[in-house]
Amino acid sequence: MVDVLSQNEIDALLAALSSGEMDADELKKEDTQKKVRAYDFKRAVRFSKDHIRSLTRIHENFARYLTTYFSAQLRTFVQISVVQVEQLPYDEFIRSIPKMTILNIFEAEPLEGRMVLEVHPNVAFAMLDRLLGGAGTTPTKINALTEIETIVMERIFSRAFDSLQEAWKTVIDIQPRLEALETNPQFMQIVSPNETIALISLSTKIGDTTGMINLCIPHVVIEPIMPRLSVHHWFVSQKKTRAPEEVEALQSRLEKTKLPLIAELGTSEISIRDFLGLTAGDVIPLQKSVEDPLQVKIGEKLKYLGSPGTVKGKMAVQITEIVNEGEEENDE
Asked: Which residue numbers delimit the Flagellar motor switch protein FliN-like C-terminal domain (predicted)?
């Protein structure tokens, strides 16, 4: 990316050239020389800034869904927010997390490969304490999980993946599924050590306990859908086509829908006195000529004009004209 100078920097550069502190010829030579930039092959850049921005947007929604989910489950104050989204080698991620932590290894079809949701022990044990009836505190010494604690952890984090599915719906419909729960990072090898991953760090606060939740997504897993993480995919509207069976089902339901059809003979206005005095055999004159067409309404909307008649001894209306959309009702 080209650096843009501020106005103060431009003024300082012009002043230096005018005073002779800098030589314009030397600057030209520097521009013509080949510039060499160091590249670390162990930290390969696989995600562009555009991809990082898209991942940030997706997981900001994920953080909001998680906040709602954990607040309801734990019945206490929970606040989760995205701290940063970065790319780094998988080996560096493993070395950065505690030796004893909660590692939720999961798959998300149709994506191929495994991902990890790492939960700091402070956060995980605060959740566990809250679910088991405690105040939501973290023990001073963290030991290995018992069988009951493992089952409780698996259940709460399995349901948390519903939030991840909802957050990714704008890009792809995934089906996250918890594969295993580990506590030792050394026993977890989902990709090669030098594989680039996207690391989404979520700052988590449960009551008075704070910690981090890290989502590790290997590049090789989401490489097939990388084009969908571009600005073009997010902001350019695409025409969605329905499957033929969906169209047929929708058409079938519409055809069975019942609508109120009203053939209006006419209207009239009478006083309350006359209305109260009506008896059988009285005649009410309508504000319409017998030669005028009848108004046929769908609900309260005028749609057709017709003429009265009978069919097989039953009163009927013959449609004579279709009223165009937006045409004014002349007789009302």
From this structure: 253-323
Average pLDDT in the chain: 82
> What integer is the mean pLDDT of 292-311?
86
Q: How far apart are CA 120 and CA 98, in angstroms?
A: 8
Beta-strand ranges (E) seen in the chain are: 78-89, 102-109, 114-119, 175-182, 196-206, 209-218, 261-264, 294-298, 301-311, 314-322
Sequence ranges of the domains in the chain = 49-233, 259-267+286-320
Cβ-based burial of 101 (10 A; exposed 0-12, middle 13-18, buried ≥19): buried
From the candidate CATH numbers 3.40.50.300, 2.60.120.40, 1.10.3210.10, 3.40.1550.10, the one assigned to the domain spanning 49-233: 3.40.1550.10
Q: What pLDDT sits at residue 327?
A: 52
Q: Are 203 and 212 in contact (CB under 8 A)?
A: yes
